[in-house]
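TICKET #2291
ISSUE: user wants both folds in one file
ATTACHMENT 1:
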Amino acid sequence: DNTDIDGVAGALGQASGPAIVCGSGGTAPAAVVGLAELGVTEITIAARNADKAARLVDLGARLGVASRFCGLDEPELGERAASAAALVSTIPAEVASRYAAIFATVPVVLDAIYNPWPTPLAAAVAAARGRVISGLHMLLHQAFAQVE
């Protein structure tokens, strides 16, 4: 049983509309599944590696959620962020800091990073009055799932 999925879904609590998963590493598949379980309508995979992102796009599609890839440095990323209802960032804090201004307006952000805290991304979202969820909340919900 993958408790990462429980961690993402539990930490977010609810999500609807379009969402972004930033990153294509180990936590990203759980983010895709967790968002799909919560009922998002669309998932954009924002990542540097198009090949790794392709498997996440495929995963989203298999779960019945329209999914697409957007490179982290593509101009379209700003448009995706402007329409997103939620973002799950799985990338290192120093990398995410380069995109903090783009993602600052997303109303709900789960930053899987918990050290250092707050990350530049979390600080930017909080400054824009968004709801920021720390990776520690994700870990807490994973722990709950492990003892159920």
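ATTACHMENT 2:
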Amino acid sequence: MVPKNNQEPLLNKDCPLRQVINIIGDKWTLPVLYVLTQGTKRYSELQREIPGISKKMLTQTLRKLESDKILRRKVYPVVPPKTEYNLTTFGDKLIEPLCVLADWAEAHQDELQMICDRRNQSK
């Protein structure tokens, strides 16, 4: 499979699509991004709004996304500490293609559920 613009084939580790998948492909990145599409959030709000995420995983995910320039972290010099997170312009531009992917997933929900069920049965 080659992207429409005939640039880097997907087999090349430097392919832009593979780089994006490396950024968003873990368990917690998409839920964090989803919550941040609703606006600036404090750490405690993110933890409350993402069911099942541990403090350790939330911290790791936020640090990775900050390092990848997907989100911005702002620390206020107050006691107790106040830290807020929001999407950067770069991160905001990622949301539209993710919405297209979400629409595809919703349109193919039944097939995707069968695939997941089959995988779970084979474990």
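RESOLUTION: both attachments delivered.
EXTRA DETAIL ON ATTACHMENT 2: The mean pLDDT is 92.
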